[in-house]
Amino acid sequence: MIQDAFVRLRAKQLYWQGYPPAEISRLMGISQNTIYSWKKRDEWDETPPVARVTQSIDARLVQLTGKPDKTGGDFKEIDLLTRQLKKLSDGQPTDANGTKKPRKRKLKNHFTEEQIIALREKIMGSLAWHQRGWYEQRHHRNRMILKSRQIGATWYFAREALLDALRDDVK
């Protein structure tokens, strides 16, 4: 059974290397119909390229780690292959097909409703008279403001954007 799995894996790798099933059959001494059956059943053609490379690297790593007397070159190759695997996986778990599972989004700086209300009241209480006028006109897409220095426009618009983001739950 284990030997059958090894033979099947070797046939799949030869197929991915570009050998036709007839050539694989001749090289391995297996019926051509068996090779075609494995190809269809295991969906060799539908396997994504990243999964193909990953499986090939895995097979080589298993071969190298099982070797009793490793040379310096073997250790170098093991190091290279493990780094390549890590780079391919990109730190994300993959499913059986080799596709990456989507990461769960973390809520950052999440405000509660009470915090949003308190923040809105604090900001509104700190506005100067001309900034209150800007706030009342916030529904206009374009606002023409004749801006002189030291009137707090940058400060105001940063807080307006924050309040809009909290109101609309902007990501």
Automatic annotation (TrEMBL):
SUPFAM superfamilies xrefs: Homeodomain-like
UniProt domain Terminase ATPase subunit N-terminal: residue ranges: 6-63
Lineage summary: Bacteria, Pseudomonadati, Pseudomonadota, Gammaproteobacteria, Enterobacterales
Organism: Salmonella enterica subsp. enterica serovar Lattenkamp
InterPro entries xref list: ATPase_terminase-su_N (IPR010332), Homeodomain-like_sf (IPR009057), P-loop_NTPase (IPR027417)
Record-given protein name: Oxidoreductase
UniProt superkingdom: Bacteria
